[in-house]
């Protein structure tokens, strides 16, 4: 049991007593109050199994879609949301009435099979999720029991306020506030792969005041109160305050350990549970991805509705004719004595023809129900799952370097891959490797670095080794250092001390070694230090500092230690900097800063960031020559495709720092909605009057095969956009290197004439004689005029930067910008934010109304991936967030070529043909019934046995159409890649256009006419039986049904372009199954088999007329399609026909 505490008071009362009156914790969004007492803060093992204390939920989680009680009703609801299933349910219910033209079980059984199969699939998937939940909820963790000891309990029993101990390589069971660790300074290392896919370790630090709580007995008297934000999905932010020993201490993400991340390189940690179960950040992020449906599927729904309209139309027509015929029974000349209209029920009452027509209408709806394909949806689901399996197992999309295959994370969009019109791509990590190498730098206006840049080389001309020439002239190979590809004798091996601006170089290297958040990791064997950095750029810069003589080797919560080369002594000296504040990097700030105190007591602010941000914060005392030269070098590096950062510093006075730190601490301690604004304002007050040191240039190499892939996609007619945050010059250079920008292209560059102008200056016209809004509008108009004059024969490339894009996306210019961009073959957007990426994707999708694909590799690409029709994630160096938000995942950009041009083409053609064929075979069958009904005076007499109708879609024609959707291919993968123009068949929706759909339907109507009237005149008046009797209703029905089964299966055989043994097997076996069923079912007693009783053995099988008429009718029914195919191939060839001819010539 939980030990009772004498002073235990309700949580709300304690919160009110502990929280100072001036805090804003009561503001919306910051209402969580966590009380932790060492004595008795844990729940009892036997109580609240998974329930939480107070008003907060327990730590048990459930990711299942259903419960045992809700599965049946909820799953049934999901199934009957589909119009087709709902319609069949209504028909099945009505079939129990006397209105039914056949037995109710024959209607109900196919519905039960289809819905049952779908529900079984849902049940299996949900059961797997349930098993995973049980495994997670029953994991063990050590929790403090209030008696100076920890004991193990299940995760599901944790409550808010519990103190837990997590050991090395264990997962955190809930969201925790880090109290202490096995390290004296309270640091620990965390792997967040389950959260964001990143494998590099994150460094977490406890507060100094709690770092001493590293013994179990120290928690017996521990009492604390935490006020913090409410549960939310933000993984990288946290606001809270710890009230402990009468003091307030601000909590930041550095003290937060998130559920499902893992403790690494640390023996153990102690933490307080603040969020449990579904309140944890990982569960807050566990949302269903946006629902995406392919254009083919959306059009298929319209066809289903069209079939419903057709069904109601022919049922209405038949009912009207039946009503007229019934009314006519009152006249003497039309009296049908055998129908006994004088003694009829309401279903055939000449005195009440309207009521009889209404009843007939309901009967007709059931009679023609076969027009709607009941097995269409589940067949498509099966086919798409199998198609996804082929994508996953494609060896040509497997990356050996990373050991990662392609993955179809959803099967709903397979066919959409073959219809992609526009690709919107990130650059860094998507087109490039995101493996940064320090290549060049500019210090005090002097450029350093002699290495060649990859984008200036021919494809593949990349150096893999460094060559060192020794004193004796011998040449030896030197293994390159990861992240460092710099050579310049003026800086290497301490030679920088001989430069005239030695002090600036020394400070430059010091900033590289100190201004970062990297973690040093020493190799146990060699002792060499490597770094776990939050980004590849930061890792390359710290590695460069190490190679140039400033080796960062140790970090604590408050210090950074560096081996610095001292030019006076000519050797490395150990220096330790006291870390006072870290102003972290963000995409909005575009910079990071640290404030440190040296061993001599000096205060420095070191800052690095984008040149556009750093230069506007420089002091007026900077040398103009240094500024000018550095700007020129940055432009040169950008034009060469390198990523640049500017470095600066300033020295602070003690009074200045103390005053600022009070302001900054107040902003950090504040708990309100404007917290981030207050912190940023305080940061702005110290990050000013900087002294420029220089700039770095880091190379990010293109991935293998990117230029060739983009060239092939361009040949396929796909328009490509690159959306990047890089400088315009860098992006343009990469654009040429990757074939996005090509020779012969007309470039349209849209930028503001005044680089410093931003959106807030739209109406004041600063920096130019024309307002920015007017500048962009004029340039868009001039560009449209240029395209109009030169026509479509000249390809255009649009290049626009983020500043100009801000104005171009305003409501009045948006349409003009999108019209211009759509007319260009390539579009390059520079200096744009993640929000702008998502906005552009949404606008492009809405504007072109064709399939868009977004591809990226980082968390900043998630919005773009979810906005596009198809999201493709690259499992690169920036983690797995993009992959987890994507529909398809590939290891490298070059695999996109095969994904779209091969699998996209095949999947689109297969699904389109499969759906068209489904409607063809159902219309053929349904209209055969309609002609019989018309011939039988619309009496609602079914032309086939009821079980024939039930098994038509389920048994006799289902397998061949699935084989078509899985295995058929008009051309080989080689031809798909050699003739990329065939991709335009999908873009133009050639195989699923309304003309193609209606032609298949018309073909079905023609086949039904040939089958019905052919069978009618062939067997009805002939002596079919051996005893000389003519054919009756039963023989006519079997003959028509046999012709239908043969016709639809042989029609499929004519359409298939690529036969495998599986397709042969399912086509001919489906026909064989029909005959087998006819024999077995006909052997049942007549009360069961009714009109099928012995009809095959006694009448059909022994009659040559039956076999001959079947042959002639089937051949005649196939002739129209056969002639159409020949005529189209010879006189109106399409892309697919040309590709097939190309394959024949190979």
Automatic annotation (TrEMBL):
Keyword ATP-binding part of the UniProt annotation: yes
EC number(s) recorded for this UniProt protein: 7.6.2.1
Ranges of residues in domain P-type ATPase N-terminal: 55-105
GO CC, alphabetical: endoplasmic reticulum; plasma membrane
GO BP field: phospholipid translocation
Domain of life: Eukaryota
InterPro entries in alphabetical order: ATPase_P-typ_cyto_dom_N (IPR023299), ATPase_P-typ_P_site (IPR018303), ATPase_P-typ_TM_dom_sf (IPR023298), ATPase_P-typ_transduc_dom_A_sf (IPR008250), HAD-like_sf (IPR036412), HAD_sf (IPR023214), P-type_ATPase_IV (IPR006539), P-type_ATPase_N (IPR032631)
Binding site for ATP: 426-428, 538, 585, 608, 643, 724-726, 831, 837, 860-861
Domain P-type ATPase C-terminal: start-end pairs: 883-1134
Transmembrane segments: 303-324, 355-378, 911-932, 947-967, 1000-1023, 1035-1058, 1065-1084, 1104-1124
Catalytic activity reported: ATP + H2O + phospholipidSide 1 = ADP + phosphate + phospholipidSide 2
Cofactor entry: Mg(2+)
Protein location: Membrane
Membrane topology: Multi-pass membrane protein
Residues that bind Mg(2+): 426, 428, 857, 861
A GO term for molecular function: ATP binding
Keyword Transmembrane in record: yes
Catalytic residue positions: 426
Keywords noted in UniProt: ATP-binding, Magnesium, Membrane, Metal-binding, Nucleotide-binding, Translocase, Transmembrane, Transmembrane helix
Function: Involved in transport of phospholipids.
Family to which this protein belongs: Belongs to the cation transport ATPase (P-type) (TC 3.A.3) family. Type IV subfamily.
Protein name per UniProt: Phospholipid-transporting ATPase
Organism: Leersia perrieri
Lineage summary: Eukaryota, Viridiplantae, Streptophyta, Embryophyta, Tracheophyta
């Amino acid at each position: 049991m939980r030990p009772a505490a004498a002073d235990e008071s309700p949580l709300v009362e304690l919160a009110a007593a502990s929280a100072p009156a001036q805090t804003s914790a009561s503001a919306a969004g910051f209402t969580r109050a966590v009380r932790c007492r060492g004595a008795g803060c844990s729940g009892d093992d036997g109580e609240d199994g998974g329930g939480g204390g107070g008003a907060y939920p327990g730590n048990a989680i459930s990711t299942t879609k259903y419960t045992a009680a809700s599965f049946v009703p909820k799953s049934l609801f999901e199934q009957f949301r589909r119009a087709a299933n709902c319609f069949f349910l209504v028909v099945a219910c009505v079939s129990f009435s006397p209105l039914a033209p056949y037995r109710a079980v024959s209607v109900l059984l196919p519905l039960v099979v289809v819905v049952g199969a779908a529900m079984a699939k849902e049940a299996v998937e949900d059961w797997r999720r349930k098993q995973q939940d049980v495994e997670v909820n029953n994991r063990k963790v050590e929790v403090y029991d209030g008696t100076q000891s920890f004991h193990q309990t299940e995760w599901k029993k944790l409550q808010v306020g519990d103190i837990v101990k997590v050991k090395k390589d264990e997962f955190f069971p809930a969201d925790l506030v880090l109290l202490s660790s096995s390290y004296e300074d309270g640091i620990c290392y965390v792997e967040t792969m389950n959260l964001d896919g990143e494998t590099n370790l994150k460094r977490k630090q406890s507060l100094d005041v709690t770092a001493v709580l590293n013994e179990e007995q120290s928690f017996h008297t521990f009492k604390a109160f935490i006020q913090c934000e409410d549960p939310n999905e933000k993984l990288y932010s946290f606001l809270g305050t710890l009230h402990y020993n009468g003091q307030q201490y601000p909590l930041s993400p550095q003290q937060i350990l998130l559920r499902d991340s893992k403790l690494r390189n640390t023996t153990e940690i102690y933490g307080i549970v603040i969020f449990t179960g579904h309140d944890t950040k990982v569960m807050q992020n566990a949302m269903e991805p946006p629902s995406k449906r392919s254009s083919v599927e959306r059009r298929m729904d319209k066809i289903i509705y069209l079939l419903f309209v057709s069904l109601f139309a022919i049922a209405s027509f038949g009912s009207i004719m039946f009503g007229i015929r019934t009314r006519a029974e009152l006249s003497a000349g039309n009296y049908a004595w055998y129908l006994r209209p004088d003694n009829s029920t309401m279903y055939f009452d000449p005195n009440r023809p309207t009521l009889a027509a209404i009843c007939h209408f309901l009967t007709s709806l059931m009679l023609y129900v076969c027009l709607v394909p009941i097995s269409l949806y589940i067949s498509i689901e099966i086919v798409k799952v199998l198609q996804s399996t082929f994508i996953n197992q494609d060896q040509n999309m497997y990356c050996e370097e990373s050991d990662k295959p392609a993955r179809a994370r959803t099967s709903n969009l397979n066919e959409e891959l073959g219809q992609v019109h526009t690709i919107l791509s990130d650059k860094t990590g998507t087109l490039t490797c995101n493996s940064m190498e320090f290549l060049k730098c500019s210090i005090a206006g002097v450029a350093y670095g002699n290495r060649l840049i990859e984008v200036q080389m021919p494809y593949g001309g990349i150096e893999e080794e460094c060559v060192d020439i020794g004193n004796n002239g011998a040449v030896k190979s030197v293994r390159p250092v990861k992240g460092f590809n710099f050579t310049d004798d003026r800086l290497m091996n301490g030679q920088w001390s001989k430069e005239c601006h030695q002090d600036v170089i020394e400070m430059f290297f010091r900033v590289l070694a100190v201004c970062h958040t990297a973690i040093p990791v020493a190799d146990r064997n060699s002792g060499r230090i490597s770094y776990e950095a939050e980004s590849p750029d930061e890792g390359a810069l710290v590695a460069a500092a190490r190679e140039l003589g400033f080796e960062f080797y140790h970090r604590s919560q408050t210090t950074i230690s560096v081996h610095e080369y001292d030019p006076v002594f000519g050797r490395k000296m150990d220096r330790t900097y006291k870390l006072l504040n870290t102003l972290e990097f963000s995409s909005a700030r575009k910079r990071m800063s640290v404030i440190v105190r040296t061993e001599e007591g000096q205060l420095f602010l070191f800052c690095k960031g984008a040149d556009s941000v750093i230069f506007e914060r420089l002091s007026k005392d900077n040398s103009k020559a240094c500024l000018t030269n550095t700007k020129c070098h940055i432009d040169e590096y950008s034009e060469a495709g390198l990523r640049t950062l500017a470095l600066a510093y300033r020295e602070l006075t003690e009074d200045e720092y103390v005053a600022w730190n009070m302001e900054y601490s107040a902003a950090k301690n504040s708990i309100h909605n404007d917290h981030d604004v207050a912190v940023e304002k305080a940061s702005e007050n110290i990050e000013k009057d900087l002294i420029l040191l220089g700039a770095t240039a880091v190379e990010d190499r293109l991935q293998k095969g990117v230029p060739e892939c983009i060239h092939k996609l361009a040949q396929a007619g796909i328009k490509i956009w690159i959306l990047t945050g890089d400088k315009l010059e860098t992006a343009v250079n990469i654009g040429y290197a990757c074939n996005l920008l090509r020779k012969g292209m007309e470039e349209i560059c849209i930028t503001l004439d005044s680089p410093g102008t931003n959106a807030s200056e739209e109406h004041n016209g600063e920096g130019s004689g024309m307002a920015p809004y007017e500048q962009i509008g004029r340039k868009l108009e001039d560009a449209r005029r240029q395209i109009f004059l030169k026509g479509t024969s000249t390809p255009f490339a649009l290049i626009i930067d983020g500043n100009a894009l801000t104005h171009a996306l305003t409501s009045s210019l948006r349409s003009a910008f999108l019209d211009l961009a759509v007319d260009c073959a390539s579009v390059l957007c520079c200096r744009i934010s993640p929000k702008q990426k998502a906005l552009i994707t949404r606008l492009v999708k809405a504007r072109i109304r064709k399939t868009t694909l977004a591809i990226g590799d980082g968390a900043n690409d998630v919005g773009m991936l979810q906005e596009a029709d198809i999201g493709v994630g690259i499992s690169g160096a920036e983690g797995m967030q993009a992959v987890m938000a994507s529909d398809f995942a590939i290891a490298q950009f070059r695999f996109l070529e095969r994904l779209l041009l091969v699998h996209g083409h095949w999947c689109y053609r297969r699904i389109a043909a499969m759906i068209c064929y489904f409607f063809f075979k159902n219309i053929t069958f349904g209209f055969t019934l309609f002609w019989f009904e018309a011939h039988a005076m619309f009496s609602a007499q079914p032309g086939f046995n009821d079980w024939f109708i039930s098994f038509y879609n389920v048994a006799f024609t289902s397998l061949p159409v699935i084989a078509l959707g899985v295995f058929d291919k008009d051309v080989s993968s080689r031809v798909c890649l050699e003739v990329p123009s065939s991709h335009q068949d999908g873009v133009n929706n050639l195989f699923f256009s309304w003309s193609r759909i209606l032609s298949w339907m018309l073909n079905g109507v023609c086949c039904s006419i040939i089958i019905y009237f052919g069978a009618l005149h062939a067997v009805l008046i002939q002596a079919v039986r051996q005893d000389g009797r003519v054919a009756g209703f039963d023989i006519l029905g079997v003959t028509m049904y046999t012709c239908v089964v043969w016709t639809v299966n042989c029609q499929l055989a004519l359409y298939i372009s690529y036969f495998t043994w599986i397709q042969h097997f399912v086509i001919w076996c489906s026909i064989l199954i029909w005959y087998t069923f006819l024999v077995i079912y006909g052997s049942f007693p007549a009360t069961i088999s009714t009109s099928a009783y012995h009809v095959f053995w006694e009448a059909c099988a022994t009659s040559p007329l039956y076999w001959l008429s079947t042959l002639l009718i089937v051949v005649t029914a196939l002739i129209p399609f056969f002639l159409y195919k020949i005529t189209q191939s010879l006189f109106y060839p399409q892309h697919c026909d040309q590709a097939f001819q190309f394959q024949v010539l190979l």
